[in-house]
Amino acid sequence: VTHSIPACIGSMTINSKQLDKERPVSILAVNKCYVTVQEGTFFDGSGFAALVREGYKVRSDVNITLEFRTTVAHGVLLGVSSAKVDAIGLEIVNGKVLFHVNNGAGRLTATYEPRGTNSLCDGKWHKLQANKSKHRISLIIDGNLVHTDNPYTQSTSADTNDPIYVGGYPANVKQNCLTSKNSFHGCLRNLVLTKGQQAEFFDFSRAFDLRGVFPHSCPGAEH
């Protein structure tokens, strides 16, 4: 077995001596145990998850669904960006959800603005669906639809072949469709990207780079 256990371990003794887990010699990707846990992935606000090392091709159509829970009004949700301008991005800025798309001709944004400033950052689960269909983009949050007109009707494909960054991205990586550098703090679950009839579910424990992300559980309530 070469992978870590997704569990809590406590009160460990060796030769009748209790180990001091408060002062470890070294520590890597170990978080506190929670009194109550929920299914999902916890992002501690310091890092990101990097998926699809070989590169994800957005092209003309993609449908993104996920659920998020946070108490923070800013944070990157997801980004895929080429080194040129073609890209997509999802982020929370000032308690609003923004879905950006650039098919090469210019950035287009669909913005969901909740009625209450903190109503999406209330520590409860919210459902998000972001859809790009050629030059059209739309965003559905908790069943509420927003879409935006696109003046660039001739430009329909976001030509990317790059990793999917979730919850943030490294400082040396360019993201053309994200305005925020803030890493997401909170929980995500059920990330699915669909093209046509082909739905792809992403397991964060299979990320090729994971920093400040705990893939197997979320604290039951924000601390």
Gyration radius over CA: 19 Å
On the 0-100 scale, what is the average pLDDT?
92
State the share of residues found in helices, binned by percent.
under 10%
CATH-level-2 architecture: Sandwich
**Distance between the terminal alpha carbons, to the nearest Å?**
33 Å
Instruction: Find the count of extended strands (DSSP E, 2+ residues).
Output: 17
- Given helix and strand content, the structural type is mainly beta
Q: How many domains would you count in the coordinates?
A: 1
Q: How many helical elements? A: 0
Order of helices and strands: EEEEEEEEEEEEEEEEE
Could you name the CATH topology?
A: Jelly Rolls
- State the major sheet: 13 strands, antiparallel
Strand content: over 45%
Q: Using the alpha-carbon principal axes, give the shape.
A: elongated
- Low-confidence blocks of residues: none
What does this structure look like?
The chain has 223 residues and is mostly beta strands. The protein has a single domain, classed as Jelly Rolls (Sandwich). It is 0% helix and 48% strand. The protein has strands spanning 13-14, 17-18, 37-38, 41-56, 61-70, 75-81, 87-93, 96-102, 107-112, 126-133, 136-141, 144-148, 162-166, 185-195, 198-201, 209-214, 218-219. The strands form three sheets. Strands 4, 5, 6, 7, 8, 9, 10, 11, 12, 13, 14, 15 and 16 form a 13-stranded antiparallel beta sheet that branches. Strands 1-2 form a two-stranded antiparallel ribbon. A hairpin with a 2-residue loop joins strand 10 and strand 11.
